[in-house]
Amino acid sequence: MFPLDLLRSFFSVKTTLPPADVHIIPCSGLDVAARDLILTTGLIIDARLDVKKLEDSLTTLIKHKFPRAGARLALRNGVYEYQVPRTFDSKTPVVFTAEDFAEPYRSETRPDLPTHLEGSLPSVYSVPPAAFEVYLKSAKCPASVEELLVPNTPLLQVHVAVFDDITFIGVTSSHLLFDALGTGELLRAWTRMLDGEDINAIPGMEIEIAPFEGFAAPTKVKHQRGWFVLGLLGQLLFIVRLILRLFRDPKEQAYLIRVPKVFLEVSKHAIMENLQLQGSAEWVGSSDVLLAWWFKSAYSHRRPSDTTPIHIHLAVNLRGKPIFPGDSTLTGPYIHNAVSSIPIPAIPVNAFRKQSLGEIALRIRRAILAYNADLPGIQADMQWRCANPLKVPFPCSARGEYTFHSNWRSARLGDLDFSGASTSVEKVRVLLSLGYVVSGKGIPMRGAGADLMEDADAIWMNQIRGAKDWENIRRSGSIVFL
User: Fold this and answer.
1) For residues 27 and 384, what is the distance between their CA atoms, to the nearest angstrom?
2) Three-state secondary structure call for residue 381
3) 150 and 228 share a domain?
4) Which of 85, 203, 296, 303 is paired with 154 by a 20 to 30 Å CA distance?
5) Are residues 197 and 225 in the same domain?
């Protein structure tokens, strides 16, 4: 070997070839950015369901309509990718586990389901969602993306706990595989299978679809709107402030909040009447009022002199926006991440105390309208995110605080009908949807929240904050704690 060849051999990078029996689909920048979050979507259903029918129908559905839901995750040559078996004949597309309790769920030893809550005012349910988590995950359910990188480990983990009167269904994976709306796509198809619908009539997800591939080219955009690239001093200040908040209030707690629809409608009507009296053509929706009410409730206990900027990020579904090649939208089922975030211009924390519900709701509505009208801006956000999948910008200024809020209502989890798997009654319903997010990296979840579902009377939210913060909210009297 010549010296030059020897030198090249020494510095060459070994390339790992893909397995021969899988489809290789690179993860998008949106997927990779969410990889460290392990998301569980939980459903509580008011009937005993047939476990075998659930497993068989889901397996068939994934094999024939949603093979990407049966993907394995790999980090090959520095790139995250889905590896989808070309055939599932000898491999299970999903880890499906089940527990059968030959007794009713309702007993003095188990937490009450919050289905008895009523009234016209919002209220916090005192039993944290963690009380139900044991029925939605198996003991061996992965808790980090590293566990899911073990070869031939299905990304999708489904756990079912069956009682005589209640069935729990938990769907768990890295957020890299699903967003909430993508989970809803799979679950709706699943219930159609259970209902006996011809599988050929159920829309599936194309194996090779890659709608965000065109955004991955290098870009001159320096960061996604609403996010920050901080200098060294700014990073140190951000980290120090975050550590101090965690030190002062170390315990995170999640609670369910029931917000009656009648409360939102009355509040929205009053805001709209006031706008009309002012001669304004502006408007707010029920979702704006819901968010404004929550943020006022969550921050009004802070000092009147506190001007800390609060940076709010609202999740936004990109599927219906004409930002894809040819100004197209995503029309078929797409289970992977297709969400970005709408940044609400920073609001001083004392404004939540001083400004009216209508003023806060208008701030939110104006930001949403401006975001939706700026399609080039959305495309630029996607170009940065997809070109920089491993970069982690800061969600707020160095002196600020941040909060994230997702809206799962479009997933219509409360409308899912699992009657096709019922062993006893003709019509079953989802009593409650729950959401859990954990991270093997220890990422703080406080400040994260979601509208989980709606029923005929109310919208159910999940909010995560520090235990002391919850106590301050309770003492302020802004929400009733049951």
Assistant:
1) 15
2) helix
3) no
4) 203
5) no
